[in-house]
Amino acid sequence: MDSMSAISEELASIDGQISDIFRTLSNEFQKLEKIKDTNRQSRKLEEITERMRECKMLIKRFERVAKEEESRNTPDTNRMLNEKNKSMTKELNSYITLKKQYASSIENKRADLFDGPSGEEGFGNENGLLASSMTNQQLVDRGNHMMDETDQAIDRTKKVVEDTINVGAETAAALKNQTDQMSRIVNELDSIHFSIKKASQLVKEIGRQVATDRCIMAFLFLIVIGVIAIIIVKIVNPNNKDIRDIPGLGPPAQNRKLLWDLK
């Protein structure tokens, strides 16, 4: 604590934030151990990954500020800050390895068809076994490399999510257009059905009128035939008393005698 009291307030603040994140990560992994559902475990790993990214940024900031203040610090302070940076990187590296092991375990539970997760798990175990044999600089480099890989994986995941959202939006728009088209088609079919119904009624009315006209024409035809028959009979037998005279066709009237003709 005496050596830490010699550093600036900014570095002390960053160190305190990093320590808080490490405590949070430890608690989160303990909670993760008790979760059995793979979906909840995945969500918890996402939260842990986000905390790791924040911790990585703070460690880089700690390293940058320490280099800026290097000329103002004593050699012992600079050496202590260097060791502190390596220690924090090593601790974060251990959490990253643990996170990868959990991720591989979740993928194995889901019976994924890809073999990648199992390979990553073995690689993480190997890193955990070899961590004690690495130098501090190697640990720092390895930790930075693993954090970069984690960032890239998160970026790829975000890109996939964005693409999925875009595809979903396009699909929703296409479905809406198709729904509108179907609504218009249904309305047009209703209009056509109504028109056909009205046309059918009109055809029936016309049919009834035609039938009525035909009856009238047939009746008139019968009348004309009857008149023609009477005319023919009167012409053939003008003295037939059973048939009444038809104006203009009866026999000529007898010559009337005037009174002065009788004198």
Automatic annotation (TrEMBL):
Which CDD domains does this entry report, sorted A to Z? SNARE_SNAP25N_23N_29N_SEC9N
**Cellular location(s):** Membrane
Indicate whether GTP-binding appears among the record's keywords.
Answer: no
The UniProt transmembrane annotation reads: 216-236
Q: Which UniProt keywords apply?
A: Coiled coil, Membrane, Protein transport, Transmembrane, Transmembrane helix, Transport
Give all residue intervals belonging to the T-SNARE coiled-coil homology domain: 144-206
Give the signal sequence positions.
none
Q: Which GO terms describe its molecular function?
A: SNAP receptor activity; SNARE binding
Record GO cellular component, one term: late endosome membrane
> What membrane topology is annotated for this entry?
Single-pass type IV membrane protein
InterPro entries assigned to the protein according to its UniProt record, in alphabetical order: NPSN/SNAP25-like_N_SNARE (IPR044766), T_SNARE_dom (IPR000727)
Q: Which GO terms describe its biological process?
A: protein transport; vesicle fusion
* SMART domains according to UniProt: t_SNARE (SM00397)
Q: Which family does it belong to?
A: Belongs to the novel plant SNARE family.
* Protein name per Swiss-Prot or TrEMBL: Sec20 domain-containing protein
